[in-house]
């Protein structure tokens, strides 16, 4: 009976993909199924596929993506990691869609939350896997930023990844086991992390073509990211960051792009 209800609501969504009632009904059905069966793997996979299909023809459908984010609470760690891998292809083809990157951020937070709850019993190899997942996400996002010029969604997502990386891996937040802290590699060194970010910013700050606005937008997004990093950087590394701001003439760049916000940018650069 419940599976038939999913088929019915799927039919409704095929005609009205933004129907709040249809999405709410779908969640009620899944809750009802979870009450009588703990095996939701197939249903969760089909739900994710449904959202992707609907998102293909219904751009920026927040209701569909909110439904997909809601499904994460029913996923196991293995399913979350699998979703991260499978959703990459779709994200690479829709780099201007904030929704798919918000979904990825929720998957990443789910991994971190589960690991924090099991910090005393989690295996060392599991913690290394989490560490690698975050590093891979940073590298993948950097590749997309260079490939697709001027896409704000990619830069916003990078702030999220970097913020989590800094808070959970580069600083002693007290959430990780001592054994894991001792395993931190050179990549976790804040100086090394900062150099990688500055290389990306330097690459994206050069406007090579004034005919199109994408390169100017890319330079502006990289400048905003640099200002954001300034808030996160420890005092001993602040001079290196300020020097980079002078090299790329950040003050001139932001005043030219956003003259009405010059006082705000001056505050952050002081």
TrEMBL record:
Keyword Endoplasmic reticulum appears in the UniProt entry: no
Keyword flag Acyltransferase: no
Organism whose genome encodes this protein: Lupinus angustifolius (Narrow-leaved blue lupine)
GO molecular function, one term: protein farnesyltransferase activity
Keywords from the named record: Prenyltransferase, Repeat, Transferase
Similarity remark: Belongs to the protein prenyltransferase subunit alpha family.
UniProt name for this protein: Uncharacterized protein
InterPro entries: Prenyl_trans_a
Any one Gene Ontology cellular component term annotated for this protein: protein farnesyltransferase complex
Pfam families: PPTA (PF01239)
PROSITE patterns found in the cross-reference section: PFTA
Coiled-coil region list: none
């Amino acid at each position: 009976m419940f599976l038939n209800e999913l088929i019915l609501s799927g039919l409704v969504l095929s005609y009205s993909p933004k129907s709040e009632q249809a999405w709410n009904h779908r969640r009620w059905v899944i809750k009802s199924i979870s009450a009588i069966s703990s095996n939701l793997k197939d249903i969760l996979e089909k739900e994710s596929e449904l959202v992707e299909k609907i998102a293909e023809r219904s751009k920026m459908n927040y209701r569909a993506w909110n439904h997909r984010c809601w499904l994460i609470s029913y996923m196991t760690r293995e399913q979350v990691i699998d979703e991260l891998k499978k959703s990459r292809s779709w994200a690479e083809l829709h780099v201007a869609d904030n929704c798919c990157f918000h979904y990825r951020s929720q998957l990443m937070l789910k991994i971190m939350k589960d690991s924090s709850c099991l910090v005393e019993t989690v295996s060392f190899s599991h913690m290394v896997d989490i560490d690698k997942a975050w590093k891979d996400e940073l590298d993948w996002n950097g590749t997309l930023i260079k490939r697709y010029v001027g896409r704000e969604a990619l830069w916003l997502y990078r702030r999220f990844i970097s913020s989590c990386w800094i808070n959970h891996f580069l600083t002693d937040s007290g959430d990780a086991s001592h054994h894991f802290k001792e395993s931190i590699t050179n990549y976790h060194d804040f100086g090394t992390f900062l150099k990688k970010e500055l290389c990306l910013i330097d690459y994206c700050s050069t406007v090579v073509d004034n005919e199109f606005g994408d390169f100017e937008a890319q330079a502006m997004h990289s400048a905003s990211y640099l200002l954001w990093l300034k808030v996160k950087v420890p005092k001993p590394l602040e001079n290196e960051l300020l020097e980079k701001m002078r090299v790329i003439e950040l003050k001139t760049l932001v005043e030219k792009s956003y003259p009405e916000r010059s006082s705000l940018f001056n505050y952050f650069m002081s």
